[in-house]
Amino acid sequence: MNHGPGEVIPLKAANDVRDQLRRPVRDLRLSVIETCNFRCPYCMPEDAFPFGATEGSAFRLTFDQLETVVRAFVRLGVSKLRLTGGEPLLRKGLPDFIRRLTAINGIEDMALTTNASLLARQARALHKAGLHRLTVSLDSLDPKRFAALSGGRGRLADVLAGIEAAEDAGFERIKFNCVVQRGVNEVDVLPLVERFRGSGHVLRFIEFMDVGTCNGWSRERVVPSGDLLKRIAQHWPLRSLQPNYRGEVASRYAFEDGQGEIGFISSVSAPFCGDCQRARVSADGQLFTCLFASAGHDLRGLIDAGEDVLADALAAIWRQRSDRYSERRAEAGEAEHVEMFRIGG
Ligand code: SAM
Ligand code: SF4
Ligand code: SF4
Question: How many CB atoms lie under 10 A from the CB of residue 5?
């Protein structure tokens, strides 16, 4: 059975699936491509992932297959969808795909995470296609540091042009993600706050995470959100805000002077596994039930068997889920984790 546009999905089926910790699945991160034009050292360091070696287009799901994945997840209760990568704007035909996804009854919120280097050319088409929201990764406003943080591949000017184009195209309340690493880009924190305060956009600071296998993570390089909060509040007083919805990963703070809000994603210092309602599917059709999983569930055969079979299989996998890696980090040992660029954050 294929639920077409406008067709009502039975609420019972949509709400019933719970994992071992009683968590539903509400949020799907769908990677549309496994490669990237940047080589951010914390995600896809070039010595481990040279250009040309990571492209796997032969295994990449088609848009038809990706749409089947989304439709099946909607039947389990997913209403929020985020397209990601790798760098999703490298995938040809993305606006047409987004247009198809907007027709799916049940998707209430569709966002895309991008490094914005290719956004200037695509912002208008993405907005026209019906994409609701954009998240832009931006770790520095200093051109030299920005270049280094992209592995020598990105130009800050391209990203700033992309942001301007997105604003012109009509995207509002863009989220900006900055991963903060001790001794690397802490100096960028206050300038970023200053730049986005009062802009109508929302800046979020993300703790450097031990994702993947080769980003040289160590706890010493993590700047706890609490420290950043204090530093920022010394310049611009802040008050905490309630989450927008259950399972929101960022803790929100408003500027006391009414100039908008900022957020902190504290996966290391304050894990939020108890509310984790998020599934991730890589561009080659592997389902990961945790950002730190070492292995995925291969969905390709199930996708080709159709939406009914896939939805049943996804429900069975979700019911078995018991992940809470961040809460158990200290005792977790040296397990291999899936690479961040495969599942998109
Ligand atoms: N290429 C797109 C981008 O950079 O926005 C989308 C995919 S990227 C993997 C998604 C997010 O993961 C980015 O905001 C990036 O900063 C974040 N990320 C990657 N590696 C990380 C790490 N080790 N710790 C925390 N965040 C990380
Ligand atoms: Fe590419 Fe995004 Fe990873 Fe940077 S964070 S290497 S832009 S996928
Ligand atoms: Fe969810 Fe895994 Fe992150 Fe915990 S560690 S919040 S279970 S993705």
Answer: 9
Tokens of 78: 């997913």
Query: In the chain, what are the domain boundaries?
Result: 27-343
- Integer CA distances (angstroms), 337 to 14, 122, 169, 287, 332, in order: 30, 32, 37, 14, 11
Ligand 3 center from residue 289 Cα (angstroms): 8
In angstroms, the CA 144 to CA 251 distance is 30
Dist. CA 87–CA 66, nearest whole Å: 16
Q: Are strands 109-114 and 80-84 parallel, antiparallel or unpaired?
A: parallel
Q: Among the residues of the chain, which ranges form H helices?
A: 11-15, 63-76, 94-102, 119-129, 143-149, 156-169, 189-196, 225-235, 300-305, 307-320, 340-343
Residue with tokens 């770790």: 139
What is the position in ligand 1's atom list of the atom closest to the CA of 136?
5
139-183 residue pLDDT tens = 999 999 999 999 999 999 999 999 999 999 999 999 999 999 999
Ligand 2 mean position to 161 CA, how many Å?
18
| Both structure tokens of 136 | 């832009």
Q: Write the pLDDT tens digit of every residue in 269-300.
A: 988 899 999 999 999 999 999 999 989 999 99
DSSP for 239-269 reads EE---SSTT--SEEEEETTSS-EEEEE-TTT
DSSP states of 41-102: TTTS-TTTS-TTSS--GGGSPPHHHHHHHHHHHHHHT--EEEEESS-GGGSTTHHHHHHHHH
- What number does the ligand 1 atom closest to the CA of 116 have? 5
Question: Model-level pTM?
Answer: 0.94
Which H or E run contains 141?
Answer: none
In the structure encoding, which two tokens stand for residue 46, read together?
Answer: 């070039």
Architecture of the CATH domain 27-343: Alpha-Beta Barrel (3.20)
Give the CA distances from residue 198 to residues 235, 262, 273, in Å, rounded to whole numbers and listed in that order: 14, 11, 32
Strand, coil or helix: 10 = coil
